[in-house]
Every structure is written in structure tokens, then in C-alpha cells.
């Protein structure tokens, strides 16, 4: 079965494509700056200032649990964003999630500590983290579809990498700001006031992100759906009735990347390497600088993966990526445990090769897996489920394993297993590179990409 060329979707020219890519990259970077800032501060600040009365070990685990708690609410954000995004459009949802995330982050920077107001402090902190989780659950799907649905067919991987590189860019900015503040406010000054500055900066970033996203046009796919009055009244229900198995498999594909990535984005490595009661006891500043450098290399490999996926397909890029990620996991702790900052940096940089090659193509792959009428719901909910399975409690699990066993070997086994499970799920899915995304081809899009289920969609790539 060969498909004819796509109709008017995508209709944007090169200039508009570049504007969309810039808007999704900058907007997503701001969103994830906020999200990762909390995760990094959990093991460096919040365990002391908000959960300190629990005792050192328990305070750290509870602080990481508060990081993971937000993931429990990401599906709620994904359900809401998917439902309204498939009915109201991608652009409106992106504006709402940006304001929610930035507002919560700014307020965290103003919170009193446990010493000032007692247990009200951690309660307020956790509430604002939940708001961040709801926002993050809705952000990614909208950014992905704005990029991929505007893209020419042969550049979906490249343009889809735009919101993906916003994630390591957010890590780079958050780690960079914390590293700067450890220099400006070293020692006790960092815990007294220095940590608040990066959170308060989010207010400025909200304004920047709002104006950048405000000027971008709505997705051409959604405009066609709306013009034809084909908007689905209950897209989430339709998604699970027809594509439940696909959602589960695609979520596992993403979970392996998330579990490994949250060793740094979730703050575990930062806490493990700098904990004065731990085996390494490294200075906070150099470790944050190492994480910042690794975020930059993660960004590069994420972009490269998007480009490569346009050449060899999304599935083949995942296979290559998970093999490299598994190797990076095996090297991670032997290098970190040397206690030399150079080796810590090398370990994190090597890990980003596999992280990038299991992430850059994800936008394009997810968008190509789901039919147009339920696509926002599909990509958002799948991503949120994958985040829970993979990253939600990865730092907590890693901390508990180290405390229970006294070594990092169990953490390596855990991360390696997650990577192999994700590789297995990727092998079960067919590649749909080049499939038309517009509503004219809904029948073709509904054919399951799961091997052994339904007919195999044969697509002709349109330049």
C-alpha cells in the first residue's frame, strides 16, 4: 500500500519552521530549567532546609521522593493537556503550562524553611512540586507536536529534536546557575540565600518564554482538523480503546532513557558525589560544573540523534542508542567512584552519548505512532507513563540501593535492566518514518505499528 503525497500539511515555509523550532526549544528549555532546578536542589538544599529534622539519610530519601512525587501527577497534566490540546489546539496549552511551571518555581524561591514555619514549609514545597509535575505532563506533548507537525517530512527528526534539546539545555542552565551561585555565595551563604536566586530568576524567564511562544502559529495539522470540524469529543477514551498496547510499549521505550537520565537530572549523582558523609565527599562546585558540561554534550548528541533518525529511521537510532547507553551505564560508577573530578566528568559525558541517541528521535517517533485525532493525548500520556516507569523514583531507588547494599553495583544492575527492557520494546515497534501526519490519512495512521498486530503500514517518504 503506497500513500499519495501529503496535502497541505505541513504548509509552513522555512522561516516559520525556524521560528517554531526556536520557540519550542527556548520554551521547553525554560520549562525544564524549572523542573530540573528543583531536582538538583533536592539533594543539595531541600534535604537540609525542609526535611532536615528527619535525619541525614531519611531526609535525602524523602527529598528525592518529593522529586518523584511530581511524576505521579504528570499523567494528570498529560490527560488534561491531551484532552484539551486535541480539542483546543497545541499553542494554547503551551502558554498555560509555561505560566504554571514558572509561577511554581518562582514561589519556591520565596518559601520559608522548616526552621521558620515548621512542617508548613515542606507541605508548601511539595504542593508547588506537584504543580510543576502537572505542568511538565502537559508541556512536552504540545512542544513536540508544534515542531513535528510543522516540519517537512524529511526533516521531522531534526525539527522534532528542537524540544528535545530543550531538556539538556534546561539541565545546563539549572546546573550552571547553581554552580555560579556556589561561587558567589559559597558555604553557608549558599544554604542561607544563594539557592533562592536561580528559582527567582524563573519569573524573568516566564516573560521571555511567553513572548517567544506568543508569536508562533498553531499546528497546521490541528488547523485542518478544526476546519473540518473533526475534533474528537473524548480523545483520551478513544486512545486507550484503540491504542492501549502501543501506549504501553512506547512508554517502556522512553522509560530506559529516563531512568538513566535522572541520575543527574534527578540529582542523585550530585548528592552521591558531594555528600560529606558518603564515600567521595567532593566539593559542590566542581561536581555541578561536571553536570553542566555533560548537559552540553547531551544537547549535542540529542540533536545529532534527530538528524541521524531522518537518515536511518527512528527504530534503528533507538537500537544504536540503547546499546551505547548500556555501555555508558556499565562505565558510570567505576569512573565516578574513583573520586577524581576528571573521571566523574568523563563518566557523565560518556553517558550522554547514549542518552542523546535514545532521546533526540523521540518527538518524531511518537508523533508518527499516533493518529492525528488523538495525537496530543497519545504523545503526552505515553511520555508521562514512561516518565513514571523510568525517572519518577530512579533517584530514590538508587539512594535506597546504595544505603541497603553499601555499594553502587545494584544501581548499575537496575539501570542496565531498564536500558535492556527499553531496547526490547523498541525492537517490537515498526518504524513509521515518513508516514503522513494530516487528517486525510487517519486510516493509514490507525494501522498498528506493533509487530504482529494488524497490517504493516508501507509508506512512501515525501520530500
TrEMBL record:
GO terms for cellular component: plasma membrane. One of its GO terms (molecular function) is transmembrane transporter activity. The keyword Transcription regulation does not apply. It holds the Pfam family MFS_1. Residues 20-434 form the Major facilitator superfamily (MFS) profile domain. PROSITE patterns: MFS, SUGAR_TRANSPORT_1. It is found in: Cell membrane. The keyword Mitochondrion does not apply. It is a multi-pass membrane protein. It comes from the Bacteria. The chain crosses the membrane at residues 58-81, 93-111, 117-137, 158-181, 193-212, 245-265, 285-305, 317-335, 341-360, 381-402, 408-429. This is Inner membrane metabolite transport protein YhjE. It comes from Corynebacterium halotolerans YIM 70093 = DSM 44683. Keywords: Cell membrane, Membrane, Transmembrane, Transmembrane helix, Transport.
